[in-house]
Specification:
Elements (H helix, E strand, L loop, with lengths): L6 H11 L4 H8 L3 H8 L7 H10 L4 H5 L4 H12 L11 H7 L1 H30 L1 H26 L5 H29 L12 H11 L15 H7 L6 H20 L2 H10 L4 H8 L3 H9 L7 E6 L4 E5 L17 H6 L6 E7 L2 E15 L9 E9 L14 E3 L21 H5 L8 H7 L1
Helix pairs in contact: 2-3, 6-8, 7-8, 9-10, 11-13, 12-13, 15-16
Amino acid sequence: MPRSALTGSRIRERRTAQGLRQSELAARVEISPSYLNLIEHNRRRIAGKLLTRIARALAVDVSVLTQGAETEQLDQMGAAAAAHPDVAVELDRVDELVGRYPGWSALIATQARRIAALEARVIGLADRLAHDPFLSASLHDLLSRVAAIQSTASILVETEDLDDNWRKRFERNLHDDSARLATGAAALVGYLDAEGEPELGVVTPQEELEAFLNATGFHVAALEGSVPDLIDRIVRDAPALQSDAGRALARAYLRRYRAEALAMPLAAFAAAAQDAGHDPARLAAQFGQPMGAVFRRLASLPDAGIGLVVCDGSGALTLRKTTPLLPVPRFGSACALWPLYRALAQPMAPLRVVLEHAARPDERFVCFAMAQPAYPEGFAGPAVHESAMLVVPPELVAPGDAIAPLGRIGTSCRVCPLDGCPARREPSILGDAGSGASAAALPGALTARAG
C-alpha cells in the first residue's frame, strides 16, 4: 500500500485525537458522514480542495495527512528489516503497518535502535575481555585478594586454640584485604562501566593520544589559521594526557597538525574537499601535499563524521578516529578484509571501495586506503610501511562516483556475524556465525589446532 493511500487513516487518527465525531468533521468540510467514513477507511482517494478543507478543519498541514509524520519511522523500520535479511518480512506492507499501528511501529523501531546500541557495547566489551591487559591484571589481583581472604578466614574458623596476638594479626589482615578488594572492585566497575564512552578507559601513551584526539574530533581549532603556537598549553590542559610519554606523542602529533593546517588552510581545504567529493588524490594534487597529510586533514574537518584508521607494517593499529560507520577494536586484530590491510600488499596503489558493516546491512560507507613506505635510515635502510584508511559517509562523496558495494566487512572475527567468511580466524560469539562456523571454514592454523 503506497503512503498516499493511508491518508484516510491519518485523518481518522487526527480526528479522534481531537475528540471530534465523524459527523462533526463531515459538517465542517461539507460532506456526508458516510463519505467521510469511506475516506477514513482508505476506500476513497482524496486530494485537491477537499483534502485542503479537511487539513484546515483539523489544524494541520496537508503534508501531514498525505505523507504522514511517520516518514522517519518508515526509514527506521526498513533499517531494522535490513539488519535481519534472513527474516522474511512484508516490506511492501510496512507503510500499512506504520499507518495503522504507529505505536507498535515506534516500539519496533526503538527496540531496533536499542539492539544496535547493545551490539556495539557487546563488541567493545568482548574485545576488552579477550585482549585488555589492564583488565586481565585487575581480575588476577581481585582473585588473589579473594584467595587471601578465604585463607585467612579458614585459619580463624578452623584453629580453635589460636593465640590472641595471632588472631588479632589475622583479623587485621582480613580487614586490610577486604578493604583492598572493595577498592579494586569499585575501580574495575568504574573502568568497565564507562557508558557511552568510545574508549572505555586508557592504558598506554598511544591510547592517551587517541583519547585526546577523539575528544576534540581530531580538530584542534586553536592550531588553525594564523594563531600563535599554543601546543604546550593545549598539551598541559588536556585531561586525557596523563603520562610524559603521552604528552610527548601529543606534542609530536600537534606539531605535524600545525604544519598541515598552514599548508592546507581550513576554509580553503573544506571548500575544495566538498568540490572534489572528498577524494584524497584530487586534494593531494590540488594542494601539493602527501597523501597521508591529506588523509589526516580530511579526518580533522569539523562535523564531517569522517573516520581514520592507521596501521604499521605489522598490521597493528596505531591511530584510530572513532566513527559509528565502522567500529574499531581497541585490542587485538581488526577484520582482515579491511582495505587498510589490502593496501599494505600494494604500496602506493590507491584503493576506493564502498562497503557495508556486517552488523548494519544497507548502511553503506566509502573507504579510501593507501599504504606508503618511509626510509628513516636512508636509501640503504629498510622500508617502513604505514597504511591509512578513511571512512567517509556516502553523502559526502560525489554522486557520480557512486559504485555498487564491494562486500561486507566486520570489526574483528570474535564479534563478527558474517557467516562463511573466507578470512575468519576464529568462531564468532555472536549469532549463527559463531555456532555454525565449521573447522573447514577457518584458516589452516586454526584447523590444525582444532585437529
